[in-house]
Amino acid sequence: MFRVARASQYLAITGGGIDDIKLSKKSWVFPWQSCTVFDVSPVNYTFKVQAMSAEKLPFVLPAVFTIGPRVDNTEALILYARLISPHDKESNHVNELVEGVIEGETRVLAAAMTMEEIFRGTKEFKKEVFDKVQLELDQFGLVIYNANVKQLVDVPGHEYFSYLGQKTQMEAANQARIDVAEAKMKGEIGSKERTGLTLQNAAKIDAESKIIAMQRQGEGTKEEIKVKSEVKVFENQKEADVAKANAELAMKKAAWTKDAKVAEVEATKAVALREAELQTQVEKMNALTRTEKLKAEFLSKASVEYETKVQEANWELYKKQKQAEAVLYEKQKQAEARKAEADAAFYAKQKEAEGLVALASAQGTYLKTLLGAVENDYSCLRDFLMINNGVYQEIAKTNAIAIKDLQPKISVWNQGGEQGIGGGSGSGNGMKEIAGLYKMLPPVLDTVYEQTGMQPPAWIGTLSK
């Protein structure tokens, strides 16, 4: 069965083919394996830890810890799956386990610190508790995601923090009264000081104002004379500038008139030149248009011819491919048929060979039985087999057929007396044998001629008809 875990879940698989525990988000689970789904989302644990400081003053430390499995460490996750996942995360077993670890480390740490150190160093105390508890939770594969340590609370019957709060409140009230009296005294002294400084500053400002007024009056007269002189100089300079400007204006007017006439002539020529250039460009564009039109026509025609030839070539190629595929298919089928025939012939030969082997085995057994019956007399066995298989009958029949159509012709040759050859009895014996050989040739040659129709060579002689 294929199992898939959710985003906050893991599969813990054990059984055949797995040495320890296999963790996965999705996997096949076989019948010889066991699969457990466990959630890895963190859980909030709220505690009120009762501890005692170094002065043996009891107190209550409210705390909220967000704890969950360490998902970024495979070994820690395996520890969690082995030790914690069989239980519900919010069950009393897990809650007591986590609470026991936190209470034990908090009490050990608080016993080594005074109440003042715990109260003033809450941040350091929280960090120490966090680190100590994390060390203990590592052996269960757990990690602290967040730890919130609230304010210390008195144990009923031991109102240390209440008395401390009252003390602080009274000290603050007394300090406030002192601060109010000091502020009132400083206010009255400051008010008198401000009044005296105001009168002194007013007299000083009046004197400085008179001095500044006289200075301003003298400077005004001096500035008036200076301004009149500058005005006169400026007027004379302006008159000279006007005369110079009139002269320059006359010269510029003459230059402008000249430039206007030259510009008019240049404009006329430029217009004519521009018209010629535009006419040339128009003619070039017309020629280019006609060229492009011809190119487009030729290109279109060439493209059509090319496409036609490509289609024809593709069609020829397609036909040749199909023909080749048909030939190949036919060859393959022929090869398959030949292979089937060969397999059939081989199978027939194999069966025939098996039949021959079986027949030979049966015949061997039969011969052994017959040989035992005739007491190992091979001659008797041979005669029995030839008679039983009709060998003698076949031999007789064959001989009869062989001589059936023969018409034997018996020739008798008389060799005459043998005394006239040689004359003697010693050396004449050899001549007799030679004479007998020559006497034997005529009947042999005659028989050959009668049986085959072949004449002897001319150098031997001619047979009489």
UniProtKB/TrEMBL annotation:
Family statement: Belongs to the band 7/mec-2 family. Flotillin subfamily.
Name by which UniProt lists this protein: Flotillin-like
One matching Pfam family: Band_7
Organism: Cardamine amara subsp. amara
InterPro entries on file: Band_7, Band_7/SPFH_dom_sf, Flotillin_fam
TM spans (from-to): none
Gene Ontology cellular component terms for the protein in this record: caveola
Keywords noted in UniProt: Cell membrane, Membrane
Band domain mapped to chain residues: 11-184
Subcellular location as annotated: Cell membrane; Membrane, Caveola
Membrane topology, as annotated: Lipid-anchor
Coiled coil: none
